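Budget justification note: compute hours in this period were largely spent on complex prediction jobs such as the one shown. Inputs:
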Amino acid sequence: MSRSPSPQPGGWSSPGLNTPYDNGGQTSPFIPNGSSPHNVTWASAQARSAEVKGYPGFTPRSQGFFGKHFRRISTSLPFNHGEKEKLGRGRSQGSKIMQILSRIGRNMWRLRKWLGLIVIGIIGFVIWNVALRRMYNRASWLGGGSKYVVILAANQGGGVMEWKGPREWAIERDSVKNKRKYTKHWGYELEIVDMSTKKRYAHEWRESWEKVDTIRNAMRKYPHAEWFWWLDTNTFIMEPTYSLQKHIFKRLQDVTYRDINIYNPLNITHPLTDEYLDPETRSAVGDGKVDSVNMLIPQDCGGFNLGSFMVRRSVWTDRLLDIWWDPVGYEQKHMEWEHKEQDAFEYMYQNQPWIRPHVAFIQQRQIMSFPPGACGEKGDDPNIHYQERERDFLVNMAGCEWGRDCWAEMYNYRQLSNRLNRSYWEKFKDAISDFFKKKTKKSEKKKEKKN
Amino acid sequence: MHFAMPPRKTSRPPPYAGRNQSKMAIPPALKNLVRTRARLILGGIVGLFTLLWLLGGTGSSGSSMSASKVGGWKAADIPKVAVGSGPPVVIVTVMNPKADPGWTAKIKSNREDYAKRHGYQTFFPQNDQYPLRNAPPSWSRVPAIRHAMTLHPGSTFFWYLDSTALIMTPAVPIHTHLLSPAKLESFMITNAPVVPPDSVIKTFSNLKGDRIDFVVTQDKDGLAPSSFVIRNGEWAKFFLDSWFDPIYRSYNFQKAESHALEHIVQWHGTILAKLAMVPQNLLNAYASGPASEKDGAFKEGDLVANFPGCDKDERNCAKEQEAYWAILEQAKN
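Corresponding output:
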């Protein structure tokens, strides 16, 4: 039996220096079996004979880049364990930290396949998160995000009518940022519209009636989009993880009502009963099919609300947008129609029967929760007001410019949204800091008591 | 003394340090499993969390609402009748119940004869049966067409013809001689001012015959809604309802519904895009009154002879139409 070169307490046996004293502790000069004076080991002899025979009985392992250069690379690493000819002679050397490091390194090398998988996984996840998720969400045949356009009205009432102060700028910046993040995540289109009052028409007419024009322009700009979601500036998406598809359109029949009698603050007579109208127009729910819904609009305590509503691209919508503003109606009613398009639409809903079968009312809190102060000071109406526990989708700070503080509301809701949508890691950190805060508070209290 | 070799190991090895006994006892089987399959278990856990995170990122559950439940609507049971399955044309004439009953009966039979000949339908509502809200009774033509569409949902065309007009050449079927897409395309007047002589709004010049939903003529003063054709469909409902808007009815349009029509046609592109203006003598030739100078006056062979306004003031339709009745009687025999 040969002695294969193995590390001995005394280190590697090196040829030539092989003394009888070398076999650690063995005092007799007896040379163990088979060990020739030239120190030819079984392995080296085998290797040489393989060379002579000329067939690859022995294939070098070091073929690839890592095989060739691994030694060089690994020796330059701090936890080198391949280099054994150093002073420590195979004994673990250096501090404890180095030992731990070298053990980690060894284990990592042993688990390299798994590590590689994990690294690939991480890289893949990052790519998914940064680029592919958006593409996935956008693609019309996967996520379908490009079928939705969010139209955000900015600069409302600004322009020639009013100077914007720092608060207004801040509100607008926050609002835009919020929607930009949301649309980017889900792959929707975002169209920010400058609603500053422009004297676009030679006469005074049609001032600040640009909703219609804006939606039409967006329809032209995004010819493949299907739904257009109008949003006022004073809105904040509280739950950016809700997609429109899942939150609204997949359960359209559960979150909307087509029979206005279910919630009818304006006391509109419905359904129509005139015998000259066709049965679909007289039906309370139109034809009751999902694809006949061309407009989704919420109702608050005062009737229709156009602060957040959706229209679908269709010939019906084309006609509605065309007929919405009419000079005769404007001339007769513009003093009375304080809310412009909103009042005009309420009027049309009541008086033009062709509109009813294609409008669905969406439960207000699904698309536009109110803060306290709008529709009731307390803010406790479960049909209208924002409920933190139920994680409402969006807050519309409607009417905050009339005697309420828009910026404060926007700020508070932004903070709340951030807190509600923390990541697990952030929640964990916050929990720890809360824990210590509580402790210090308690001890402070104790101190106070003692004093 | 110098030793070449390290000293021997001590022959009394130190006793093994006792392990820190953990409080939770892990069953040895599990321990073995963890030891032997550590990688697998670790990988599995990591994979599971990654999967959960990914899925959690793309999907989210809708919130359950404390708000009162809405929704739950289902497809309504409304019989759908395909347009085109019924008689091709329905002739609508609104009758004045106060008019001379003999003349009324003659007017009705004039339309019924024509309808019978070509397999059409007729519809004669009264001008006081619709809720007009104090608007002039001439407005009742608008809900009347809507009513006819409700009664005959399978018909394609609805021809409104004033009670002052007579069908003079009953042999000509209107739906093939005027309303087929090819015929319409050849007849319609494009790029012409909607209201003569110089309205800035002109009829579109690139219309296709099969996209036309509204066929109307123009007399000397403007659009003449005393004889026009509407194609059944969603557009017709939109058009009639917006024409019938109470704002227009209460607005002091000088000529009530015809000025309201001119108004919506000029202000709303979705209406103008469906409108075909045809020469007056094809649909609404005037036997008397302000006919279009080019082709408005009635001559033999025209489909319709209209006596606009013959039922108003002191005039007497029956008397004015006498000669024409005679011609019709002659043709019959």
